[in-house]
Design a protein that fits this description.
There is one protein chain. With 244 residues, this protein is of the alpha+beta class. The protein is 33% helix and 19% strand. The chain is built from seven helices and eight strands. The chain has a four-stranded antiparallel β-sheet with strand order 2-3-1-4, covered by helices on one side. Strands 5-6-8-7 form a four-stranded mixed β-sheet.
């Protein structure tokens, strides 16, 4: 991602929005926000990640269309390297020692899950629901007081899109807050006594691991398809019609 740029644009008219949509399709930019090209309209803050070999063409387009822009990041690789070099105390010896304010690798998250399963057996039960395409275990935490055999349950999964590290971080934070406040917060105690929470901190384990080891912006799974050359699918889009 050396010399890749992140550019922010806000179309002031619907005509500018139409031009911007056209540019996004033609140059195949990586749209960071909004969620899709179709959502770009007048006044919509639009952030795009542009490879270094495409930034000149995009800037030329914008200047010719008289669309105002701002370069948020001049060199994306430098920002990534700066982020990965931040000091992170990642002790897993206790719940309070685990650093919930940094992102953690898949191995660290799964070690954290094993640790909670051993140290908080009254509220936590860890189990596997199978294996991923690349053979990694799919772990789930069952959070709640074992007060009776059957209780209503809430399913929570994070990390469907591999590069969105904030998802797994949220799931870990939620579990931490539930465990730390169970005795002191009547609402939390009542919730965990009456409900089970099934929490999957990393849904897309293969993609998440790949985003740490190979490509920070990898989004999809890592499965192969004999009919297509591209690797993986978008796990948050790849549902059958009328799947629910």
């Amino acid at each position: 991602y050396y010399s890749d740029k992140v550019i922010r644009l806000t179309p002031n008219t619907e005509e500018e929005a139409f031009v911007l949509k056209k540019i996004c399709h033609q140059l195949k930019v990586d749209l960071w926000q909004p969620g899709g090209v179709s959502q770009i309209s007048q006044g919509t803050v639009t952030d795009v990640h542009v490879p270094h070999n495409g930034s000149r063409a995009l800037l030329t387009f914008l200047q010719e269309a008289n669309i105002q822009y701002k370069i948020l990041i001049e060199d994306l690789q430098k920002v990534l390297e700066k982020g990965s070099s931040l000091p992170a105390w990642r002790s897993r010896r206790s719940l309070s020692g685990y650093n919930y304010e940094v992102y953690h690798s898949l191995e660290e998250i799964q070690n954290w899950m094993h640790h909670l399963n051993k140290t908080h057996s009254g509220l936590i039960h860890m189990f596997s629901i199978g294996k991923s395409y690349e053979g990694r275990s799919l772990y789930v935490l069952k959070l709640g007081r074992r007060s009776r055999a059957y209780k209503r349950a809430v399913w929570m999964d994070c990390g469907i899109h591999a590069r969105e590290w904030i998802g797994p971080a949220f799931c870990q934070w939620f579990v931490k807050e539930a465990l730390l406040t169970y005795r002191s917060d009547p609402t939390m105690r009542k919730t965990l006594n009456h409900l089970y929470f099934y929490i999957m901190p990393v849904f897309n384990v293969d993609g998440y691991h790949f985003s740490w080891t190979n490509d920070r912006f990898w989004r999809k799974t890592r499965s192969r398809n004999s009919r297509f050359r591209c690797r993986g699918v978008d796990a948050n889009r790849n549902w059958r019609v009328k799947w629910c």
